[in-house]
């Protein structure tokens, strides 16, 4: 269901650039209707001018936002380091398995951001499990802590470094 919602949301964002408020409301209603057909219940908000999208499944508690002015989920784990100059572009949270994923960009290099995580994650009690280092292009590091996992992916972009942070309870 989430894949269909995201696909529809992306189509909406492309259209939203030239749409008026009534068209946005119609698209919000169409997305909510599709979610209802799949057994869900959601509140969808499409930003008027900033190409943003917010989704909340009332049934499962899943929330997603992407675009401009994305905020960190209120219940994001305090022991997960977040790079100070990262501008968020996407945030997702799901009550099931206490799952969170945030994505953003910083003008800093992969090496600078990687050094931050190498220092800060141990301070929060995380143990490094794997580290895939492709130099200044890509770095993926997996951590574990008390039955939880944390994955940090850093990739070079034209804007600097793309940062993706994913954390959840491990499955038995």
CA-CA gap between termini: 24 Å
Biggest pleated sheet: 9 strands, antiparallel
CATH topology of the largest domain: TATA-Binding Protein
Radius of gyration: 18 Å
Beta-strand fraction estimate: 35-45%
SSE order? HHEEEEEHEEEE
Residue share in helix: 25-40%
- Total number of strands: 9
If strands are numbered along the chain, what order do they take across the biggest sheet?
1-2-3-4-5-9-8-7-6
CATH architecture of the largest domain: 2-Layer Sandwich
Number of helices: 3
Number of domains: 2
What is the structural class? alpha+beta
What is the CATH C level class of the largest domain, in words? Alpha Beta
Uncertain parts = 13-19
Q: What coarse outline follows from CA principal-axis ratios?
A: globular
- What is the average per-residue confidence, as pLDDT, rounded to a whole number? 82
């Amino acid at each position: 269901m989430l894949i269909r919602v995201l696909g529809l949301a992306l189509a909406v964002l492309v259209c939203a650039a030239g749409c008026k408020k009534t068209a946005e409301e119609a698209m919000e209603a169409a997305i909510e209707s599709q979610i209802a057909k799949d057994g869900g219940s959601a509140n969808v908000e499409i930003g008027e001018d900033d190409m943003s999208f917010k989704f909340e499944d009332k049934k499962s508690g899943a929330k997603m936002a992407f675009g401009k002015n994305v905020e960190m989920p209120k219940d994001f784990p305090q022991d997960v380091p977040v790079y100070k100059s990262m501008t968020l572009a996407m945030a997702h949270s799901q009550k099931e398995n206490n799952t969170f994923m945030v994505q953003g960009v910083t003008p800093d290099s992969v090496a600078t951001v990687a050094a931050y995580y190498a220092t800060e994650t141990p301070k929060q009690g995380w143990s490094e499990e794997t580290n895939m280092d492709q130099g200044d292009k890509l770095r993926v590091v997996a951590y574990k802590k008390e039955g939880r996992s944390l994955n940090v992916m850093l990739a070079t972009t034209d804007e600097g470094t793309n940062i993706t942070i994913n954390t959840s309870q491990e499955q038995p």
